[in-house]
Amino acid sequence: MGKINVTTCEIEGLYEIEPAVYGDARGYFMETYNEQDFREAGIDAVFVQDNQSASKKGVLRGLHFQYEHPQDKLVRVLRGEVFDVAVDLRRGSATYGKWHGVLLSAENKKQFFVPKNFAHGFLVLSDYAEFAYKCTDFYHPESEGGILYNDPEIGIQWPVPQGVELIMAEKDKTWGTFREFTEKNKI
């Protein structure tokens, strides 16, 4: 292996990944994904779609998931800085309803692996950020679900910069709570 450093999180299935970065006077080079290295690290995912978004400071996207077409995601930041969050939606898991957050930036080059049946979202902390992620299933709008980003039962500690007002899509302001999600029992 050697090309990536994989750190497990307190929630089983979540991984923080640091690729080997080779720099010199010209700049740097790194592999952002190598199937063999990931498989050796215990991450056996076949990615079928790559996505990229750009957002300004204060944009909060999430918490999203897909009911019938769940996706593993490998996320990273190409430019800027975000606080990235995953919430465990796996029924029967010892960490069901728990969250984990990680700071991803162009500078630290970290990646975050979020497995199927987790809600996912992020908050942009820099003036501008470009965010990229690989998915193991295609996006199916009819299968989309979400959980309210500020649900007190989950208690995510979003590091909203002082004086910054959140910018969100209407759907992200109106998703149901975690309790409502558990009552639907879809995942």
Report on this model:
- With 187 residues, the protein is mainly beta.
- The protein is built from 3 helices and 13 strands, in the order E-E-E-E-H-E-E-E-E-E-E-E-E-E-H-H.
- It has helices at residues 35-40, 170-174, 178-184, and strands at residues 4-8, 15-19, 21-24, 27-30, 49-56, 60-66, 73-79, 81-88, 99-105, 111-114, 118-124, 128-135, 144-146.
- Strand 1 and strand 2 (15-19) form a beta hairpin.
Distance between the termini: 34 Å
Side by side, the strands of the main sheet go 1-2-10-7-12-5
Strand content: 35-45%
The assembly state of the depicted protein chains is single chain
Low-pLDDT stretches: none
The largest sheet, given as strand count, sense and whether it forms a barrel, is: 6 strands, antiparallel
> How much is the average pLDDT?
95
Number of helices: 3
How many strand segments? 13
Helical coverage, percent range: under 10%
Order of helices and strands: EEEEHEEEEEEEEEHH
The 3D shape can be described as globular
Radius of gyration over all CA atoms, rounded: 16 Å
Going by helix content, strand content and strand pairing, the class is mainly beta
Please name the defining characteristics of this protein.
187 residues, mainly beta, 13 strands, 6-stranded antiparallel β-sheet, 5-stranded antiparallel β-sheet, 3 helices
Kindly summarize this structure in a few lines.
The protein has 187 residues and is mainly β. The protein has 3 helices and 13 strands, in the order ββββαβββββββββαα. The strands form 3 sheets. It has a 6-stranded antiparallel sheet, with no helix packed on it. A 5-stranded antiparallel sheet has the order 9-8-11-6-13, with no helix packed on it. A two-stranded antiparallel sheet has the order 3-4.
